[in-house]
Amino acid sequence: MKLQEYQSKRLFAQFGVPIPDGDVATTPAEAREVAARLGGTVVVKSQVLVGGRGKAGGVKLAKSADEAGRVADQILGMDIKGLTVHKVLIDQAADIADEIYLGAVMDRAARRVALMASAAGGMDIEEVAATTPEKIITVRIDPAVGFQDYQARQLAFGIGLAKELVRPFTTIAHQLFDCFLSSDATLAEINPLVVTGDNKLLAVDGKVVLDDSALFRHPDLAALRDADEETEAETEARRHGLSYVDLDGEIGCMVNGAGLAMATMDVIKLYGAEPANFLDIGGGAQADKVAAALRIILADPKVKAVLFNIFGGITRCDEVAKGILEAFEQIDTDVPMVTRLVGTNQEEGRAILAGAQMATANSLAEGAQKAVAAARGNL
Amino acid sequence: MSILVDKNTRLLVQGITGREGTFHTEQMVAYGTPVVAGVTPGRAGQEVAGVPVFDTVQKAVDETGANTSIIYVPARFAPDAILEAADAGIGLIVCITEGIPVLDMIPVKRYLDTTGTRLIGPNCPGLTTPDEAKVGIIPGYIHKRGPVGLVSRSGTLTYEVVWELTTRDIGQSTVVGIGGDPVPGSNFIDVLNLFQNDAETEAIVMIGEIGGTDEEEAAKFIAENVTKPVFSFIAGRTAPPGKRMGHAGAIISGGTGTAASKIAALEAAGARVAGHPGQVAEFVAETLS
After folding, report:
1. Looking at the predicted structure, is the pLDDT value of residue A228 above 80?
2. Whether the predicted pLDDT of A18 surpasses 80
3. In a shared domain, residues B218 and B279
4. Does B233 touch chain A (CB under 8 A)?
5. Structural domain total, chain B
6. Beta-carbon neighbour count of residue A105 at 10 Å?
7. How far apart are CA A259 and CA B119, in angstroms?
8. What's the ipTM?
9. Does CATH number 3.40.50.261 belong to domain A231-375?
10. Per-residue pLDDT at B250
11. Which residue of chain A is at minimal alpha-carbon distance from B277?
12. Binding-face residues of B in 77-96 toward A, CB within 8 A
């Protein structure tokens, strides 16, 4: 789960990281109020969970409260990479002398948390990693001993930080690492960490990604989920415990298992069409969950055909078949469907669907070919 | 030969009295797996599918000589269960549990490195050596014994490929699901190394997916160390960046973890990468015949 910039920075501040004074607004009037309270020049920043907000015109300076209101009016409602801006953050503008990068990240290859710093602040760290990897200094944290001061100094001296800033930098690095651990994050980055004109450090922008598997022990953080950032279908799917991702194609798919669901999408593409979604019903799904999944797929107007690919293990083919029929009782649809049921109770499942006039397939390749043909009216 | 589990395995089931634990213990026993003990704290003296239950792993090991453990306990108790098994001297731990927080797994993995314990999973379907031992949740009937070693990050996609092999009359030496979590106990390299050194295994199938760089690391290992033919399928060519595709580890982030990168690395290492799961079995059939 990703946090918005303002949420990320407030979380950092709880651990002592210095952030600019600011507040969130959802209307131009509110933005004006916040700017008036802050005084001086402010920066108005769209709060959407995509990168490249600045380039898209979603981050602007304002020299007065009135200007902040006008700028907020332009940014609110703006479309940035398919997401509508519903909130802006109004921060006191920082006096920027230099910008650096500091991030804590789950390093999968090392199976450790890593802290990274770079003198090239404000840039996308992945871009820095790709073009000038030598500018990134990385230290990995042994869970048995934790993050040590010498490692923070390695980062600070490694990026050529002025001597008098090494100590405050070390403090912030520890605070960020504590925040990462305490929040069960998989990413916590400050970018840029600004060196101000009076030689202080300030976290001007921030990004946090939380481990979904650990949200059960962070109800306060789980409550920060922004429903505006999910499609209606994704929210509905999450409510039913389904793993669902909305895509751009025309073939809806329902599959048990994440790997098989991805493979199903790939095979659809191989036969010349595009998947409309990723949908994993998980292991051992009962009929009601299957019915909910099918309702979600059919609610998508892009869907021209549906492919069910079930390899029964814990999941029973007869339960899936019952769920499909249950959904048909609730929805009237003429979208063509192809079922491929293999594994546990496949005969029972196929018998249940025998009267439903759906095309069937024995293999995934055959199922995908039939679904693609069906979407084109050729089945 | 085979790898990791066989008829001499003495299996212990942690969480044996739970719904999943009981169901799969029955399935494993029915397959012929030597299940010697179960553990659920406070349930000593009970039996599940004819298997005696103990309060602690240590007690179960002392009484039955268990050498392998499979874990079906909920995510918040699973790290504790893994450490308990490691401390009791279990050499191979298989953790089926999905949803263990990543930050809980880091110290567990660190600890296991010091005890020399091998962990398969978490968030995995387990492993099967056909006709000898089924340790996990992979349906038994899809297997056939033979020369192909299979290692996969996925669950049902593993079944799919095994089934495609079996229906072509191509058997498996051992099938290993290493799981879809960001911090797995064992990675592709660990299992590839075992298959390379296993006399029965003549060809290796490696099923990967988007996210992380384990496939790229494995490709390097294959180029330098594996002399047996390797066939592969990588799921997620059509997956969009930045979205978690079910598995906690299946996410393309910041340009790393793409299917294209993994496929290119594997092909450069001499592996033959299929366009769909069935094609993997076709490739294996061509080579072995």
Report:
1. no
2. yes
3. yes
4. yes
5. 2
6. 20
7. 21
8. 0.91
9. yes
10. 85
11. A263
12. none
B75 touches chain A (CB under 8 A): yes
The CATH number given to whatever domain includes residue B32 is 3.40.50.720
Same domain, B167 and B96: no
CB of B105 within 8 A of CB of B130? no
CATH value at residue B167: 3.40.50.261
Write down the domain spans for chain A: 21-92, 96-222, 231-375
Q: Which residues of A touch B250 (CB under 8 A)?
A: 258-259, 262
Residues of chain B contacting A124 with CB distance shorter than 8 Å: 254
Q: Using the predicted structure, report yes or no on whether residue A45 has a pLDDT greater than 90.
A: yes
3-class DSSP state of B218: helix
Q: B77 and B177, same structural domain?
A: no
What's the CA gap between A319 and A287, in Å, rounded? Answer: 5
Enter the tokens of residue A139: 């230290």
Best mutation site among A49, A216, A271, A314 for testing chain B: the one with the most B CBs within 10 Å? Answer: A314
Q: Please determine, for residue B254, whether its predicted confidence score (pLDDT) is greater than 80.
A: no
Catalytic residue among A5, A30, A99, A189: A189
Both B17 and B80 in one domain: the answer is yes
Residues A317-376 have pLDDT tens digits of: 998 899 889 888 888 889 999 999 998 888 999 999 988 888 999 999 999 999 999 999
A125 contacts in chain B (CB < 8 Å): 254
Contact between B278 and A216 using a beta-carbon 8 Å cutoff: no
B19 touches chain A (CB under 8 A): no
Are B106 and A262 in contact (CB < 8 Å)?
no
Cβ neighbours around B285 below 10 Å, total: 14
CB-based contact, B248 to chain A, within 8 Å: yes
Does the pLDDT value for residue B59 go beyond 90?
yes
Q: Are residues B273 and B146 in the same domain?
A: yes
Structure tokens at A264: 């199903």
Q: Does residue B100 sit in the same domain as residue B149?
A: no
Contact at CB, B255 and A247, closer than 8 angstroms: no
Q: Which residues of chain B are within 8 Å of residue A313 when distances are taken between CB atoms?
A: 125, 137-139, 155-156, 159
pLDDT at B68 over 80: yes
A244 is catalytic: no
Nearest CA to CA, how far is B203 from chain A (Å)?
Answer: 22
Return d(Cα A173, Cα A116) in angstroms, integer: 10
Indicate if B49 and B146 belong to the same structural domain. Answer: no
Where is the domain boundary, B87, B120, B153? B120
CATH of domain A21-92: 3.30.1490.20
Chain mean pLDDT for chain A: 93
B32 — contact with chain A (CB < 8 Å)? Answer: no
A69: region left, alpha or beta (phi > 0 left; psi from -120 to 50 alpha): alpha
Using DSSP's 3-state secondary structure scheme, residue A259 falls into helix
- Mean of pLDDT values over B176-183: 94
**Distance (Å, whole) CA B197 – CA A182:** 43
pLDDT score for A267: 96
Domain boundary among the residues B120, B149, B170 is at: B120
| Under 8 Å between Cβ of B187 and B214 | yes
Q: Which of A6, A30, A99, A101 is catalytic?
A: A101
Share of chain A above pLDDT 90, in %: 76
User: How many Cβ contacts (< 8 angstroms) between chains A and B?
Assistant: 173
- Residue of chain B nearest A242, judged by CA positions: B246
Cα of A65 to nearest chain B Cα, Å: 36
Q: Which residue in this structure is represented by tokens 């073939």?
A: A251
User: Is B1 part of a structural domain of the chain?
Assistant: no
For residue B224, the enclosing domain spans 138-288
CATH number (2.60.120.260, 3.90.1150.10, 3.40.190.80, 3.30.470.20) of A96-222 reads: 3.30.470.20
- Dihedral over Cα of A261, A265, B240, B161: its sign: positive
Same domain, B165 and B79: no
